[in-house]
Amino acid sequence: MHRSWRAIPVAAALLAAACGGNTGSGAAAAAPKAEEAATIALFLPESKTTRYEAFDRPLFEAKVKELCATCKVLYSNADQDAAKQQQQVEAALTQGADVLVLDAVDAGAVAPLVNQAKQKKVPVIAYDRLISGIGYDYYVSFNNVRVGEMQGQALLDALTAKGTAGKGEIVMIHGATTDPSSADYKKGAHNVLDGKVTVGREFDTPDWSPDKAQQEMEQAITALGRDKIVGVLSANDGMAGGAIAAMKRAGYTELPPITGQDAELAAVQRILTGEQYMTIYLDIRAEAEKSAELAVALTKGQRPAAPAKVNNGTADIPAFLLDPIPVTKDKIKDTIVKDGFYKAEEICTGEVKDACAKAGIQ
């Protein structure tokens, strides 16, 4: 996989500087005392999207443990509740957290929390979602506008191949307005699709909820008519699943092309069986591990150089931006399976076995 920033020799330096990095004998070579162990607080926004509990959390925790055996990870999930996340962050600061890694429920409203951390001289890493309104230490995410462009291009390619690009209307199902990444995905999709397709209905989906996406798709089918909808731009896999459920209930015998993101297991299986056209594969391992490396470095007073900067409306934030990868049926074997994101036996269950065999996945 292409990881443009991975060539930067940060990881090795961090590993050497992590726990036990001193050389010599006697007290200088001793492991840090328990009371000196650093606490890294990780805050994730919700659990409806499979990735957070299945990948982000365990991968982050494992990398911290690898780099610093004495470091403690204080983990919190906000269940899409901004008030709950505020309480979690304030509690972590009270408990003496040394670094905050924050994937904000409402990235436009957490500047006061970041300010509390700054007052306590606690570094902050914005994880996956760009926090606005204040300066902080790092931002680690993906090129989100590019994600939307890839989704839009994939949908346009599918419609063009079917000869339906100019013959009907598409439905666009975006994510939550509280997530700035959602606005980037939307922008990227419109960059590609505007002027080339007709948008029949467009929705912003609270909480990225698959159930709400299903309701939105049902509304679109009622308003536009089943035969008028030629494609669906869904910003992630969970909502794609909701839209597909709505179309099945409406009696579609052939589903129109539908996009997704996150390479959720159910979505990969749907792509193989033909229900979903594509997903965006995000190397969550790279995102989680880079954030863990930076967090451990910050506990040691180190500030690794970032290859990019992203302006959040107030400040230029040092950033590590990873490359997204569009995955259709023919790409699953050489990306998701090859990287070990899922094993073949995890994907190829039940009715998916035959589709896996046709795709050369065994």
From TrEMBL:
Query: Mind telling me which Pfam families this protein's record contains?
Result: Peripla_BP_4 (PF13407)
Q: Which UniProt keywords apply?
A: Signal
Primary site of residence: other
Signal sequence bounds: 1-30
Q: Where in the cell is it found?
A: Cell envelope
- InterPro entries linked to this entry: Bact_Solute-Bind_Prot2, Peripla_BP_I, SBP_2_dom
- Periplasmic binding protein domain ranges (all copies): 40-302
User: Which protein, by its recorded name, is this?
Assistant: Sugar ABC transporter substrate-binding protein
